[in-house]
Specification:
363 residues; UCP032908; mainly alpha; DUF5808; two-stranded antiparallel sheet; DUF1648; DUF1648 domain-containing protein
Length: 363
């Protein structure tokens, strides 16, 4: 069990360690820079130092977890595991803040970086492009969810009065549930919720704010479309896989399914998803920055508008004047919210309430 938990930490370590290499080349530790400054030796050294420090932290956290090998209580190991993950994330964030402040100081020492003409580039044809794969693909997981509900209701009488809902790594049953329509329909309802969530994410990918490089708008547009379409496809595949996976415990209520199979199939899914996320991040980068492109057409002549003042700590976008709700992250891969927009808070609160409320209501 312990070795498997250590292996599961690797997909968490890799993104946090290598994020500086995957962000746009016009951004460094949450600070906007001219693209030609990205290859400066001092900035390259900062990226390497950040990777080394967070890498050493990962080794320390792993070593602490390994020293718990003598502990036989799975609950204690699970608590320690959760604490170590939280400690690593917080420590990595503190390291980021240190480098973020260093980057801000470096930018202040180079006022010429902001003296070039600052341009906001908007492609009026952008929304006419095929930015994501069709939402109709989510019909598949919806049908799987409906089939699970129908199957459960048809076979309701065959479900035992008490059925296992959780196993330990050793195969022992650690949690039971009493049969009722609410309890047996919990997973199918969660299937529908997760399908709607993935559908919402695909819409976010399509509707997120357009961000095109002023120095090379055509190539930047192409990269951004590739970026969105790749992540859209990944979300569709990952979402469909998860919905199909949730059928397994539902089937086990009626048919005898080996508990080891119920344990390892989800773990394999997690490993595949984590590996896919890492590979996609490496090959695509933020906004498609790692997708090959032609030479800059206006390199050094113009720069993107400096909107550092709207990025709190270089990570949280807060701009009341911007109507956009979603936009690309500055430090990381994917999208974030404009936290000055009220709808951002509505969306996040609804998602959290449903995620917490549905199990409480149906459990």
């Amino acid at each position: 069990m312990l070795m498997f938990l250590i292996i599961l930490m690797i997909p968490m370590y890799i993104p946090l360690i290598f994020i500086p290499y995957w962000t746009r080349k016009t951004e460094s530790f949450g600070v906007s820079i001219p693209e030609e400054a990205y290859k400066r030796p001092d900035l390259k050294k900062m990226r390497n130092s950040y990777a080394w420090i967070t890498g050493v932290l990962a080794v320390i956290v792993t070593a602490v977890l390994a020293m718990s090998a003598s502990v036989r209580d799975e609950d204690s190991i699970a608590i320690l595991y959760s604490i170590l993950i939280a400690v690593y994330i917080v420590a990595s964030f503190i390291v980021y803040l240190i480098f973020h402040n260093q980057m801000k100081n470096i930018k202040k020492q180079h006022p010429d970086w902001t003296k070039k003409p600052q341009v906001i580039t908007v492609n009026t044809q952008f929304r006419r492009q095929k930015l994501t794969y069709s939402n109709y693909w989510f019909v598949i997981p919806f049908l799987i969810s409906i089939a699970t509900i129908v199957f459960t209701l048809v076979n309701y009488q065959q479900i035992p009065d008490r059925f296992p809902t959780q196993y330990s790594f050793s195969g022992e049953i650690t949690n039971w549930a009493s049969k009722s329509y609410r309890s047996v329909l919990l997973l199918p309802i969660m299937q529908i919720y997760m399908t709607l969530l993935f559908l919402f994410i695909n819409i976010v990918i399509s509707k997120a704010k357009q961000q095109v490089s002023a120095a090379n708008p055509e190539e930047s547009l192409r990269q951004n479309i590739i970026f969105r379409r790749r992540w859209s496809l990944f979300m569709i595949l990952m979402g469909t896989g998860l919905i199909a996976l949730l059928m397994l415990p539902q089937l086990s209520m009626i048919y005898p399914i080996n508990h080891q199979l119920q344990l390892y199939v989800p773990l394999v899914y997690v490993v595949v998803v984590c590996a896919g996320t890492i590979i996609l991040s490496i090959t695509t980068g933020q906004g498609g920055s790692r997708v090959s492109r032609k030479a800059l057409s206006d390199a050094g002549k113009v720069i993107d508008r400096d909107d550092d003042r709207y990025w709190k700590l270089g990570m949280f976008y807060f701009n009341p004047k911007d109507p956009a709700i979603f936009l690309e992250k500055r430090f990381g891969i994917g999208w974030t919210n404009n936290w000055a927009h009220p709808l951002s808070w509505v969306f996040i609160i609804v998602v959290i309430l449903l995620a917490v409320g549905l199990p409480m209501l149906l459990g």
